[in-house]
Design a protein that fits this description.
The complex is a heterodimer of chains A (about 190) and B (about 290). Chain A is mostly helical. Chain A is built from ten helices and no strands. Chain B has a six-stranded antiparallel beta sheet with strand order 1-2-3-6-5-4, with helices on both faces. At the A-B interface, helix 1, helix 2, helix 3, helix 6 and helix 7 of A face helix 1, helix 3, helix 4 and helix 5 of B.
């Protein structure tokens, strides 16, 4: 009986300390708080269930992989229930963050634009608009600071693919920023 | 070679022909992201260094990537887990663990008092083992023994959902109810005005005697305030036991009673609770130094 509680205490220490990372990834994947909380919670319970199988030293990558898998399973279930609805949501993006850029004085190239105060709004909007494959790899690399090797293990792809996928994601982000820049001028 | 062209921006070739073992722009740009993220092996990184010295186009490409990367890191929102999510997950994990212990569906109601005592002790034992291991306490004091029991009592009430025997914020109901069951009259106050509504009272058992548990709420967090008479009636300021398993504990003595407050609120909020409680008890008291 005590060993089960010790397991629980160990889980709290080892895995639940990465709850922010889990929620952050879930939030960027789902693009809204409610779904992100559901995903994060579900993932943590699964992690607890499979905790005995965790022998590594990197609980964060392990937990994030579970979050990701939980998200895609959840997405499949949703898609089969309401195809059009979620497709629309995928395109337009959900979320409470406003995506309108209001007062941007300079309409120069993306680099200059970014230095304005609205930089935060712009970057987050642009990221939200990316396809999920690109969004997630940027989150893992730039927000979580994971190495290519860790990302490779989370995405279950070779390291070379991580680099090329990241290159493509950054390219898409740049294009998104340019597009938003163009939109704000009309 | 085909896959290297992914992500390549054709306008950035410097037009230099491939020369022997020098890197060309296509190769450079294919590895640029790895170079930027410092993920390349030394040989490749050096080859890129060399290429960049002579190639303005690739140098520009690198600078642009670097700027974009900096902007993402600077502006992208890192979403922290909301407090209610943390609480909910912890509670679900706890009940999943208890479910595993009992080997039945996670329904606790069938456990009898004797089994609860064992469970409470096991929870407390775990808390002490991990607490002690983490903090390497050298000299256990009687207060630490009580702190263990406070944690167990609090955890028990939260996990079982048995929070109050008399569930009302009316102190004129809670106080006589508790006084009738105990051999003392606990000081009961509603602190709704300070943001800590009283949600009820409960009998509990600590330090080998029946005690009063006054339950307060702050947003989604529960505070258990255990009270019982203490012959060492000298007033003491709230002292903090070290936090463990996400709980903070404050302990003080006043007017012949000993008080133990425990919650998963953060330190400053629990301190605010203790102060509100104390000033409600003796509104004109001069407490001297406040923490």
């Amino acid at each position: 009986m005590t060993s089960s509680l010790m397991r629980q205490a160990r889980f709290q220490d080892v895995v639940l300390r990465h709850l922010d990372a889990a929620y952050n990834l879930a939030r960027w994947l789902t693009r809204n708080d409610d779904d992100a909380q559901d995903i994060a919670q579900e993932a943590c319970l699964r992690a607890f269930k499979f905790f005995d199988g965790f022998h590594g030293d990197d609980a964060r990558a392990w937990l994030l992989a579970i979050v990701r898998n939980t998200y895609f399973t959840w997405l499949k279930t949703r898609r089969s229930r309401a195809q059009d609805e979620s497709f629309e949501e995928e395109i337009h993006g959900l979320g409470d963050s406003s995506t309108t850029v209001t007062d941007c004085a300079s309409y120069g190239n993306p680099e200059v634009l970014l230095m304005q105060q609205a930089g935060k709004q712009i970057i987050n909007s642009a990221l939200e608009r990316l396809p999920v494959e690109s969004r997630e790899i940027i989150v893992l690399r730039e927000l979580e600071d994971l190495s290519y090797k860790e990302i490779a293990s989370i995405l279950q792809v070779p390291i070379g693919t991580v680099m090329s996928r990241l290159a493509r994601a950054r390219k898409l982000l740049r294009e998104q920023l340019q597009q938003m820049n163009a939109e704000s001028q009309t | 070679m085909k896959k290297f062209h992914e992500g390549l921006d054709a306008s950035y070739t410097c037009g230099k022909p491939i020369r022997g073992k020098n890197m060309d722009c296509i190769q450079c740009q294919s590895l640029l992201h790895g170079y930027l993220d410092q993920e390349l092996d030394v040989a490749s990184a050096m080859a890129i260094d060399q290429h960049l010295e002579n190639c303005a186009a690739c140098k520009t490409a690198l600078e642009q990537q670097s700027t974009l990367r900096s902007s993402i890191r600077q502006y992208a929102q890192y979403h922290v887990a909301p407090a209610e999510l943390v609480d909910r997950i912890r509670a679900r994990v706890d009940s999943a663990a208890i479910g595993a212990i009992t080997r039945k569906k996670p329904r606790w109601q069938w456990l009898q008092a004797g089994q609860w005592l064992k469970l409470g002790t096991a929870i407390a034992a775990t808390a002490v083992v991990t607490w002690t291991a983490a903090l390497q306490l050298n000299t256990p004091s009687p207060d630490e023994g009580i702190a263990e029991q406070v944690i167990a009592g609090h955890a028990r009430s939260v996990l079982t959902g048995h929070i109050a025997d008399v569930a009302t914020s009316d102190k004129h109901t809670v106080k006589p109810w508790l006084s009738g069951k105990l051999d003392f009259s606990p000081p009961v106050t509603d602190l709704t005005a300070a943001g800590f509504p009283l949600i009820g009272g409960r009998l509990d058992y600590l330090d080998k005697r029946p005690v009063a548990a006054l339950v307060y709420r702050r947003n989604q967090h529960l505070i258990n305030l255990f009270v019982w008479p203490d012959p060492k009636s000298a007033h003491t300021m709230p002292t903090q036991s070290l936090p463990k398993q996400g709980y903070h504990i404050l302990h003080w003595r006043d007017a012949g009673m000993t008080f133990w407050a425990i919650s998963d609120l953060d330190e400053s909020e629990l301190q605010a609770f203790a102060e509100s409680y104390a000033s409600a008890q003796r509104p004109r008291a001069n407490y001297g130094e406040r923490p």
